[in-house]
Amino acid sequence: MLPDVQLLKPEVEIGLSRVGAKNIRKLVQVKRESKRPIILISNFDVYVDLPSTRKGVNLSRNFEAVDEVLRALHRILSKI
After folding, report:
1. CA 13 – CA 29 distance, rounded (Å)
2. What is the widest separation between alpha-carbon atoms in the chain?
């Protein structure tokens, strides 16, 4: 198995802030019983701080966090 390069110690230890992705666009459709669906186009900027002891970040975790927020929003809106 290949090593997780992001967890390796970097050659030059410099901490970074705001490592991530900008303008992530997600289409959200909230289906509601006996009502028209609510359709939203959401834009997200997702960032994390990268400590000097890590070589990289796992951006897929950021996208998972966005999906978690959207699922929570869906649960709230579907009750309206």
Report:
1. 43
2. 59
| pTM: predicted TM-score of the whole model, two decimal places | 0.57
The label of the residue with tokens 């992530």 reads 24
Q: What share of the chain is helix, strand, coil (3-state, %, to 5)?
A: 30, 40, 30
- Length of the chain measured in residues: 80
Contacts of 28 (CB under 8 A, 6+ apart): 39, 40, 41, 42, 70, 73, 74
Segment 12-68, tens digit of pLDDT: 888 888 888 889 888 888 787 888 988 889 888 888 888 888 877 777 777 888 888
Domain boundaries, given as residue ranges, for the chain: 10-77
Tokens 């890590």 belong to 54
CB contact set of 15 (below 8 Å; sequence gap of 6+): 49, 50, 51, 52
